[in-house]
Amino acid sequence: MSAVVCAFHADRPALAYCTGCGKALCTGCVVRLNTGNYCETCAEAPTHRPGATRQGRGRVWAWAGLAVAALALYLISRIL
Length: 80
Fold this sequence. Notes:
Blueprint: E1 16-17, E2 24-25, E3 31-33, E4 36-38, H1 40-43, H2 54-79
Antiparallel strand pairs: 1-2, 3-4
């Protein structure tokens, strides 16, 4: 039985698999992010970066701002 080797370095044993593409990675190739272990190519992809989910938070704040503005306009129209 042979050990799994790195997809990029055949002389090094693999210690992890890329969460993005599934390639076997050695200690020199693995990029550890809070979303998993990645090869360098997948780690540089925007969808795999830890901050990629922050875009959805911006939408929430935009909708909250619109709701506050609508409420303010409604209250002003009721007073006048």
